[in-house]
Amino acid sequence: MSERRGKYKTRNKPKGSEHQEQSALFDWAEKMEFKYPELGLMFAIPNGGLRNKAVAMRMKEEGLRPGVPDIFLSSARCGWHGLFIELKYGRNKPTRLQQNWLDALTEAGYLAVVCWGWEEAAALIESYLEDNE
Question: How far apart are CA 95 and CA 114, in angstroms?
Answer without folding.
Answer: 11
